[in-house]
Every structure is written in structure tokens, then in C-alpha cells.
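Morning, I've got a small favour to ask if you have a moment. It would help a lot if you went through both lines with me. Thanks so much in advance, here it is.

***
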Amino acid sequence: MTIPITARHSNFAASLLALWLSVGQSQTAIAQTVSSTSTPIQHVVVIFQENVSFDHYFATYPNAANPGGEPIFVARKGAHPTPTVNGLAGPLMTHNPNSVQPFRMDRSQAIVCDQSHDYTGEQQAIDGGLMDKFVELDGTTQSNCNDLGLGKGLVMGYYDGNTVTALWNYAQHFAMNDNFFSTNFGPSTLGHLNLASGQTNGASITHDTGNAGAALLNGTVINDIRPAFDDCVPSTANTVSMSGLNVGDLLNQKGITWGWFQGGFAPSSRKADGSAVCASQHTQFDGTASVADYIPNHNPFEFYQSTSNPHHLAATAVNMIGQKDQANHQYDINDFFKALNAGNLPAVTFLKAAAYQDGHAMYSNPLDEQTFLVNTMNALETSPFWDSTAVIIAYDDSDGWYDHVMPPIVNGSSSPADVLSGAGACGNNADPTAPMGRCGYGQRLPLLVISPYAKVNYVDHSLTDQTSILQFIEDNWNLGRIGGSSFDALAGSLFNVFEFENGGNARKLLLDSTSGLPQ
């Protein structure tokens, strides 16, 4: 028995299509910048979610348990079967070297504890490549969350296509990569900075409450810290600013429209001096309390003065979204949908869900995340821009959830924070002239590409990382590279997941946001 598709959900795409038709052809190109691209893709939308390892969502893909009462996922058979991935099977599933064996979690267990995932701890859990210390060194015990009675053993849990149903359907209908890694070991701030610039070095402390140094190593960010140019950072928080360029700067130099859209960015109020307060909040699907919708260190462009919007000023008009004005390319997530409905989709769009829908364990979950992903994808697929759009769904870090693949160390580091290859070392190829504290790649993460030009029912095994997304944007719009020690120069290409020669063969896939099943 599958979860029924309600009339509300089944009418979602139809109502959006009707809205588009009512807008009229003359309104579908408001504020658009027609730019020369190296591919037929004129619009890239990056949906950057939170804290999921590859095995945590795709360990058994494409084989789901399909118990009664949950949405069913069935792998394709016949001449074009659904390909397998480098997942969990055989001894890795039943005789795993970790002290707790991998186990399936279902939809009733969607809201669970956050795991440990700092720069040093993730290296320790890998245990020199043995991949056997996740329970002891990445698992956490907390009193205020659901650990399913397993304590640190929760870190070995995974979901399948009966819970992350939409993602499995997108993977089967479009393309995914099972060899995609975080650029460095460590938590959210690093993943976001690498997405924007491929660079975690160049940080300067702007506010220190006494322990800001724990997040920095000689100017390199190694753990979470908040941005300097943001009113919504608490006065008690440590902050840093970043030097150098980011992809927003490169896009601005070419006059290409772009924007970062984040849930909760619009101020809930303002202080007497006009500074922004970001206090909007939602609960999770079962009523469990979440955190504030807006999390400042999840906005990488607020670390750079050139691309920041400290007071969270709104765009001067809907047709200015993506353009240069007082918003400086930083917007609320609702502004994305307003612009899309008005016929305005920037060339490059970064989407960050409100916290309760970003997939991060404890304050979010895969079911609320699915609602956001499906509603966003349905809106894009029923828009006039779909024929020239590529959507990339990726994650900022693994949260410490177990993944069995030893990451390739393409950039070594020798510092007190490194332990992978022994005390003070991570890898054997550390360049003594390069910034330390940037050991990577880190843990393996999911990556999906949804586009008319995506290869259909395809799994790419090419080595890629978070800066491969940055590199694809750079190459599609001929932006050049960030320069310095940015990882964009090392990144593997995403072009393998696309099929440009035949004009694009992937058809639209509209899903139900509750079940994740096709409408």
C-alpha cells in the first residue's frame, strides 16, 4: 500500500502551469541576461542541502525494502535496467568492520540525532583507510534527540527509496554520481565556502569571544564559524571575513545574472538602528521544534564583503532579482519563487532551504526535505525555462554518517589538526608552500543532475567534488578560474552526466511532495 496522492498535491503542477500561461509570452524574459554559454544550458540551479553521506541515502540503490504502508520504489528491468552504485552489499552489510552493523531506517524514523563531523574527527573515524571507527568517533550521544535507542550506533543508519523516494526517482529518471566527495574534511561552513570559491584559506577573525581560533588554522577555516557581514549573526558569535574572489565576483565581472536564495533571509523584524533580525522559524512535520530558518554560516557570500548584503535588504523590484542593486544578489527563498512566477530566472541560482527543510539531522529530516525538493523541481519543470536548465542537487557535508568509501586524498595537509595518516598528517602529498588545514577530499556525498540534457537512468563514476559544481559554472559561462589555491583547478568534470549531442532526451518528472512518487 502506498501513501495516496492528495488532490492538493496532484493539482500543484497544474496550477503552476496555469499561472505561467496567464503570465503571457511577453513576460517570460523579464530581467534575463542572454549570455554566451559553452553548452545549451542557459540556467544552472544549485540546490545545496545539508549533512548527508552517500551511503546514508543511497546505500542500497536501486533496491528498496518496499514494506507495506510506505511508498514503493521499483528498479527498472529489461533492456535498460537501473544501474547499481558503489553501495553497501555482502560483507559490508553483514560483516561490517564497524562495531555496529549498517541498518535501514524507515519513514517513522525520519527525525533523529545529529552526528559528529568536525575536521579532525572525520579523519579519525576513517582510521587510516580502515573505515572502522565511525561509531566511536563520529557517532554522538545526546539527551535532547531521538537516537532510536542506539546511542552512537545511530551513525550506521541509512534510508532507502521508501523514505527518500523522490531522490531515488530523480536518480532513476535523470543522472547521479556515486564518486562525489566533500572538498575537505569537516562541517557546513567549509562545504559552503568551497561551493562559492573552492577556497577555505584567506580567513581573518573579525569578532572573537575567546575561542575563535578553534575554527581557524593559520587563516584556514577548519570548523564552523559565522560570517562577518551579516546582521543576523548573534553578537556572542565568533566571525570571520574571507579575502579573494568567489564565483559571484566572476559572474559580476561578466555581467551575468545570479543569486543566492536562502530560507529565512528576509528579516522578521528590524532593530531601532535598522539592522536585520532573522527569527522566523518552522517546526518539522511531526511538530518537533526546529531552529531559526536562517543559518548565517550556510550563506557563503556573506563571508565576502564584495557579495554580502549585511542588512538583508530586499531587491528593489522583482525584475531586479539577479541584477546588481541593494540586495547585492542575496535573497530570501521566497524571492526565488516570486521571480520565477514573474518570468525571471537568473542565469546562476543557488537555493538554500529554510533550516527545517534542508535535510540536516535533528532540526530537519528527509521528509520535510522531500517537500522542498519536489515543490521546487515541479515549479522549475513547469516553467518556460526548463528546456535550457540544469538543476544540481548536492550536499555540504556528510554529518559524519557512515560511508564505506575511503576518499582519495588529492590535497594533503600537515598540521596539528590532521590525524588521518598519523599525528600531524593527512595524506603524503602536502605541499609545504600551500595553506594547511585543507586536507581532502573528505567524505562521499550524493550528487544528482536533473535536466533535459541529463543522461537518463545513469550513474557516473567519475571522481568529482563540491568544486566540480563551481568549475561547471565557470566553464559554462567562460568565467575563468578563481585563482590562488582554489580547488576549482583540481576538480573533476561534471560533463559526463550530460548528453548534449542529441538535444536532450530526459523528459519531465513531476512528483508528489508527500510520497515522492510520480504524479
Summary: The radius of gyration is 22 Å. The CA atoms of residues 255 and 510 lie 33 Å apart. The longest helix spans residues 366-381. Residues 7-95+160-401+435-497 form a domain with the Alkaline Phosphatase, subunit A fold (CATH 3.40.720).
